[in-house]
TrEMBL record:
Main location: membrane
This enzyme's EC code(s): 2.7.13.3
Designated name of the protein: histidine kinase
Signal peptide segment: none
Domain Histidine kinase positions: 39-157
Catalytic activity: ATP + protein L-histidine = ADP + protein N-phospho-L-histidine
Organism classification: Bacteria, Bacillati, Bacillota, Clostridia, Lachnospirales
SUPFAM superfamilies in UniProt: ATPase domain of HSP90 chaperone/DNA topoisomerase II/histidine kinase (SSF55874)
EC top class, as a word: transferase
GO molecular function, one term: ATP binding
Amino acid sequence: MGMGNAGVGECNPGKERGVLQYNKRAYYDFLSKGEEPNIHIPAKPIYIHVDKDALKRIFQNLIKNYLNHGTGSISISVKEEGNQVSISFKNYAPGIDRAETEKLFKRFYTGDQSRTKKTTGLGLSIVKNLVAKMNGEIEANVEGSFLIINITFLMVYN
């Protein structure tokens, strides 16, 4: 993996350096579903030492997972927490419970028991492996009827 510093959420017009900038096309995917993501990013850039392509894949897989399985709105936030950056994806997910969140990152797991959606159950497993390879952490939690997937990486100070 080619590791380098990536700006998380950096949104400077004309520059494609910020992680959220990599996924501009996904914004239109949200709109096609009738949703507009609620995105919270800090005003100043936050840098992490990661493989940019892997981080792009992480975002793509999490967004695709929401588009395939999510309902209601999604909130994506980036924030500093001490010497770490926290990237959270939160969406309405009625019916999901703590027991199911423990299975989400297992290979081939799909919560769609009726198999009406053609998914492989690999997307979140790939996310977990990529996060681990970049020395990050990932966890899934349920708060009320909301699923929260939180990723943390150590910050790089420029």
